[in-house]
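Is this the right way to post structure tokens for a design question? Let me know if I should format differently. Anyway, here goes:
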């Protein structure tokens, strides 16, 4: 079996390298560590630094077409465009297709499904952004129309200045995209943590609870996203 990871940087798809014998990565950017990763890294010249653009690069496509069957693609997040390209290349995706993932990644829909399943959800509600009248503190805002990672669209309201920054963010982003709903939940102070999990037909695989390093000045970009 041939498995190929797709990422802007190769190291971001290096996690399964030790589990798969025939593994390589197609990437959008060259990096000094590429020749130290222990697997082949093929760098394309995509028009944009995202999965669909990388897979649209003709040089990348020629490499993928040359690989032996059966072929699998490991991507961070599937989209309908990525699935079209994978089907064209005769490759199967490792992970959920967009029609499954989108339903549960929608933060507004997740609260609906969570309540139906009887999950203990953080105290709060989903409201329209334009109906936000009270400027409460010690709450968390999550723009439900955002599916990007890296905490984009999540706001911790600890002081009134945070509300001003949120309003300005929404104003700017609405110039390019539709933003309508927001989850408003109680801010629970504590240690930021995460857990990895995978639902399979045989059961649920889960990792340990992990601490997160968030917004450390030494690790943040000089400008732009944290």
């Amino acid at each position: 079996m041939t498995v190929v990871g797709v990422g802007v940087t190769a190291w971001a798809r290096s996690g399964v390298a030790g589990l798969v014998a025939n593994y390589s990565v197609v990437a959008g950017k060259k990096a000094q560590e590429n020749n130290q990763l222990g697997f082949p890294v093929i760098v394309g010249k995509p028009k944009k630094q995202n999965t669909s653009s990388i897979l649209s690069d003709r040089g990348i496509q020629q490499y993928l077409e040359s690989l032996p069957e059966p072929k699998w693609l490991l991507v961070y997040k599937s989209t309908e465009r990525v699935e079209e390209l994978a089907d064209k290349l005769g490759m199967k995706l490792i992970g959920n297709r967009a029609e499954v993932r989108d339903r549960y990644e929608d933060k507004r829909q997740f609260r609906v499904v969570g309540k139906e399943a009887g999950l203990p959800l953080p105290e709060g509600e989903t409201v329209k952004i334009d109906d936000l009248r009270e400027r409460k503190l010690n709450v968390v805002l999550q723009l439900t129309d955002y599916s990007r990672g890296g905490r984009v669209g999540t706001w911790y309201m600890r002081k009134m200045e945070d509300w001003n920054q949120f309003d300005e963010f929404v104003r700017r982003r609405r110039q390019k995209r539709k933003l309508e709903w927001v989850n408003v939940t109680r801010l629970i102070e504590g240690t930021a943590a995460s857990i990895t999990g995978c639902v399979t037909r045989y059961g649920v695989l889960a990792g340990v609870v992990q601490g997160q390093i968030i917004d450390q000045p030494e690790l943040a970009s000089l400008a732009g996203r944290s």
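Format looks fine. Someone answered above. Worth noting: The longest strand covers residues 2-7. The helical segments are 51-56, 58-65, 80-88, 98-105, 107-116, 160-173.
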